[in-house]
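User: Just a sanity check before I run the rest of the batch. Below are the structure tokens for the first item. I only need the designed sequence back.
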């Protein structure tokens, strides 16, 4: 029996997230109501909490967030109620474990019509819009246009919450177009960077070289455990010189920027070889200024952006289920909804990887 109300973490503004009691939604035609297992706190959640320009705007320009809304976009759950036709439309039944892709595409814009749904012009993402609440509540509604995937019962709630960030990591690595024998640099081995590293290791297939960059020793230790051939603390010595020395002076073939620090962009342009591929993944709180001559005249680089995890959910779920990608060592602490402030504070410290909020 589903209750009438539920506790939720509501986003009202920068540093203004409130634990409130709100109505439980009822599924309409094509919609699913799920009971949430666990919700991960993402780097974008932290930047939104801190007031990042992308989320809240600047100088009179509005940002992406339209609150108040339930926070959280890294989560999965179990179907507890189906709207008319929802079971047939999504191929699920009450009791099934499911995850929805973080974007709910409109299906009508230029990008959706070309099956480029992850760049939908309307661009509704769970947890940032008042009409599309996220997972930091006991129940969550998947709209009729949500892209739903089944989740095996063998995964823990924490692993299931990692499906979304791992799918994003996988797409970013795919954008690097890694070739056998490449030297690949992952800049920033936090939650998603450590996932990227494991996916890149799979794609290299025992060839080439995988290098992890970060400022925190515990993350670099994990990178070694996950298969990095070299780890570099960028606060100690010249990381660019180190990578060049490892590549006969040429530089890396593929550079994936996942640090969230504009300095990582400048460093990457110096570190990458001519005709290399630079993948930009991070969300920045401030602009990154670079010398574009390096991109064009000096090195003729391939610059690839990376957004969300299109077409990556099935292989992500399979990799978690068969153990070819391991996220268990990345999971830190779990907090009930009413301790969201503690969970966010611990995440902002940078001393842990993935904290979870558990809607109990």
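Assistant: Here's the designed sequence for the first item:
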């Amino acid at each position: 029996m589903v209750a009438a109300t539920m506790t939720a973490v509501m986003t009202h503004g920068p540093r203004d997230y409130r634990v409130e009691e709100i109505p439980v939604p009822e599924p309409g035609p094509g919609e699913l109501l799920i009971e949430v297992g666990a919700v991960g706190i993402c780097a974008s959640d932290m930047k939104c909490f801190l007031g990042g320009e992308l989320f809240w705007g600047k100088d009179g320009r509005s940002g992406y967030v339209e609150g108040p809304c339930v926070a959280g976009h890294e989560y999965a759950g179990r179907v507890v109620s189906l709207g008319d036709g929802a079971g047939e439309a999504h191929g699920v039944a009450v009791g099934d474990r499911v995850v929805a892709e973080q974007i709910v595409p409109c299906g009508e814009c230029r990008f959706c019509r070309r099956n480029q749904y992850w760049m939908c012009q309307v661009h509704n993402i769970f947890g940032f819009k008042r009409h599309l609440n996220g997972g930091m509540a006991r129940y969550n509604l998947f709209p009729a246009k949500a892209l739903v995937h089944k989740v095996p019962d063998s995964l823990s709630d924490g692993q299931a919450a990692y499906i979304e960030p791992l799918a994003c990591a996988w797409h970013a690595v795919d954008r690097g177009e890694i070739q056998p024998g490449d030297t690949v640099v992952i800049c920033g081995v936090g939650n998603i960077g450590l996932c990227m590293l494991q996916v890149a290791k799979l794609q290299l297939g025992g060839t080439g070289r995988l290098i992890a960059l970060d400022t925190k020793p515990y993350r670099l230790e994990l990178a070694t455990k996950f298969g990095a051939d070299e780890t570099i603390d960028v606060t100690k010595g010249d990381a660019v010189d180190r990578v060049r020395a490892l590549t006969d002076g040429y530089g890396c073939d593929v550079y994936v920027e996942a640090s969230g620090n504009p300095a990582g962009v400048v460093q990457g342009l110096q570190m990458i070889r001519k005709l290399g591929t630079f993948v930009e993944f991070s969300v920045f709180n401030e602009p990154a200024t670079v010398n574009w001559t390096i991109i064009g005249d000096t090195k003729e680089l391939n610059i690839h952006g990376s957004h969300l995890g299109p077409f990556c959910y099935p292989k992500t779920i399979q990799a978690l289920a068969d153990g070819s990608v391991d996220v268990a060592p990345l999971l830190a602490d779990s907090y009930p909804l009413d301790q969201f402030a503690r969970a966010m504070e611990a995440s902002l410290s940078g001393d842990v990887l993935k904290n979870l909020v558990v809607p109990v």
